[in-house]
Amino acid sequence: MAFQAAPQGVQVRLQMEQNGVNMENVWNVDVGAAVTPTILAAVGVLFDGWLTTNYSLLSSSSLKYNQIICTDISVANGAQDIRVPTTANGGIGSTQAAGNAALVASLRTIHTGRNFRGRTYLAGLAQTNLLDAQHVQAGMVAALNLAMNVLLGDLLVAGYKLVVLSRWLNNARRAVALLTEVISIVTDTKIDSQQRRTAN
User: Fold this and answer.
1) What is the pTM of this model?
2) What is the pLDDT, as a whole number, of residue 60?
3) Residue 3 lies in a domain
């Protein structure tokens, strides 16, 4: 399939591992200008700092953070910034939950529909996070919501935006990918599955 540009777009991949099983989360960022190596590095530093101070604190210490890969998706064969995260593992030293169990944050834009919504999966849940087999503790929902809103704020301070990337419209591939700003985060206590985010 031919390359589809996302002007001003940077893709951020957090590659993780738990008990030998690879996982990842993918975010997209509108950097508000032509993407440069300096900008790629700045986005990488920002996500690394957020991972250390917020996101990692919500996962089991059995979850390992391997790489943060920032890729210029505005051009074909775009440059990358690849870094080993400052924080190596999740911050909760409790018995781990099932490997595919995840808490989900829904990324909402001003528009409705699948083309304008995204998801972040919190991998590496710990047993202490769980209320029962189907739900997490309410405090975990609040903590993930806070962490995601911190990310939104950090990006805005840097002049960037967390966005939802849309490549299709009415079952037709767009000529140019559309980046739409995330304006709110929605979470609930339901445990979801991260199977689609496992890289195996």
Assistant:
1) 0.92
2) 93
3) no
